[in-house]
Amino acid sequence: MKNLVLMISLVTALSTFVSAQVRPLEDDSRSTSVNVPDAPEMFEAKYEGGMFGYSDKQSGKLKFDDINKRLIFIGKDGKEKFSLPYSAMQVVYPQSKSVTSNTGNVVRHIPLPGSFLGGLIKEKWRYLIINFEDLDVDAVGNVNFKVSSKELLDSIIRSLGGKAGMTQRGDAYYRPKVSKTEI
Q: DSSP string of 22-65?
C-alpha cells in the first residue's frame, strides 16, 4: 500500500514538471497601434509642467514642426513658448489619471446619498509625457501635456515616436541607448 501511494505521488509530481512548458518571450517591437491614425499637425493641449523656466500651467496648442524636427508649444496668445527637438526626446508615453469630477465634488457634499454617489462620478484625464535631455543646461526632464481624448493621445504618441525615430515598446516609444565601447 505504501508503495502504491509513493508511486502515485511520484507520477503526479513528475507530470506537473513534464507538462510545464517554457513560453518564448514576446517581441516588444510588434506594432500595438495598427489602427491608430496620424495625429493632426496642430492640436489643443494644456501644458502641465516640466520644462525648465516655465512653471505656470497654461492652455495652448502643440504643433509638429517637421522641417526643423521639433515639437512646438504655442500659448493662447499665439506665440511660441518653447520647443522640444525630436533628437532630445528619450521616452514618449501616455498616462491617464481618474479623478472625481467637479460635479462629483458638489454632489459629494449632499447628505447621505450624495456622499456615496459623489465619489462615483469620475472623469479620466489623459497626459502626453515626454522625457527629454536638455543639452542647453545638461539636464534631463519630463514635460507633461494634458490632451482631450485617448484616440488623440494614441495618435500623437505614434506620430511623435515615428518622427523622432524612436523604438516602440507597448504604448510607449523610446530611444535606445548607444553603447560606448572603448578602443
A: PPPPPPTTS-S-TTPPPPPSEEEEEEEE-STT--S-EEEEEEEE
Q: Contact at 8 Å (CB) between 87 and 164?
A: yes
Distance (Å, rounded) from C-alpha 112 to C-alpha 117? 9
Helix ranges restricted to H, the chain? 2-19, 102-108, 113-117, 150-163
Q: Counting every residue, how long is the chain?
A: 183
User: Each residue of 20-42: pLDDT tens digit?
Assistant: 555 555 554 444 445 778 888 99
Mean pLDDT of the 2-13 span? 70
**Number of DSSP helices (H) and strands (E) in the chain, helices first:** 4, 9
Record the pTM: 0.68
